[in-house]
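$ run holo --ligand "alpha-D-galactopyranose" --emit tokens
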Amino acid sequence: MDNRSNDGHLPASVLDAQAALYDSELLATERRRYEDALRAFSERAGPGATVFVRAPGRVNLIGEHTDYNHGFVLPMALDKDTLLVVRPRSDTLVRLWNIEEERFPAHQFTIEREIPPGPLGDWGNYVKAAAQALAARSSVVRGMDILVSGAPPLGTPRAAGLSSSSALLVAAALAFTRLNGIVLDTVDFARMCSEAEWYVGTRGGIMDHFASVLGQRGHALLLDCRPRLDAGAGRAHYVMEPVRIPDGYNVIICNSGVQRQKTSSQYNVRVAECRLAVTLLKRSHPAITHLRDVSAEALALPHDDVLALIETLPERLTMREIDADTALRATLAALNTAFSAEQVFLPRARARHVVTENERVLTGVCALRAGDAAAFGALMNAAHESMSRDYDASCPEVDALARIARAVPGVLGARVTGAGWGGCVVALAAQSATGFAETVAPAYHAATGLRTDIFVCRSGPGASFVGDMP
Ligand code: GLA
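-- output --
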């Protein structure tokens, strides 16, 4: 740990590590960002040794709301990350600052087995979530002084469905883990991070954290979200494979600027709808434990019969109907989430989305491997329609943005990415296509009155220490 903060200059080990992490044209600005963060840290915590830790956000190319159904996803880590300047402490205190202090006010808390969360949506909760997860694994977890620098364009855009919050959690967890000498296998670490995030009140899946931890430059990550028990090691492992983005194409992200208020509660309702669908399908097909199992292969049925099976699910279920059925009632109770008495659940449409989305991921990966970007683009469009219609996880602005993006010559497909209900559209476009932003931004503004931020995104490497590490 030799990042002396006294003169604000970065040591050679940090400069070397940056050269391996970031694109060469960004190195000078990254360097300034690190220096600014170091300076801001020492202004608050005083001079002394520090380390840098970073974790990227992610964009999901296809496979939405499939992860918590043990299905398939294809995210890629962004070349935009959340950076932490960290100094370990000898006590259990965590002092947390953000370089954007006005938007993200400072926090201080003590590491305990149960750390009381701040209000819903508070940024400090993601660091508390990481600390509490570590406290559950080790009886002695020392605290840290942390300064966070995550402002775009080098940082992941916030409130945009690109997992900037998960990136903060992953970076903080990496620091807590390593600075406390706790040894965890990468996959165990990623999984711990995903479960840690339940602390903030959303029953999310594993995709965001796996992408942030295991991302590889130039690749998306095909991840099979079904854990397999490794009998020898007594723990779960996952099947995953890097998938190259074919040469000649850009992944473009357009932020709709729409942030829905109730995303977390809507998300939890979708998780419940999928579980209810499983409970009902199990009655005729006991081998189904997750919607992932509703496939021609797993059920040894013709594809049309699988689709017909989904159509046997009820279109709507009320709380009263669920209460009257012991198994459905137990399914909801197991989620440990409060739902209003007026909540209506739509298992049929939700199952239709998840089952067809899993098929689209697997077909899409074959298309990418064969260099057939057009086929992949068509699947992205179909995935958007399914998210919008069957999963009801889009919104008029995002639908408009996807439609406008697709109409640009050279664009092969465009879809909502992430949890939905706002956030970003991801598009795949031929590199030869020009004028994307110049066409999409004014057309989106004319259609919705909103501005969109557009950027070409390259896949970056997963979370890491930068420079000397403990
Ligand atoms: C959020 C969750 C992920 C995943 C996506 C939807 O990003 O955190 O686990 O479920 O939504 O695909």
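-- notes --
The pocket of alpha-D-galactopyranose is lined by residues 60, 64-65, 67-68, 204-205, 207-208, 418-419 (CB under 6 Å).
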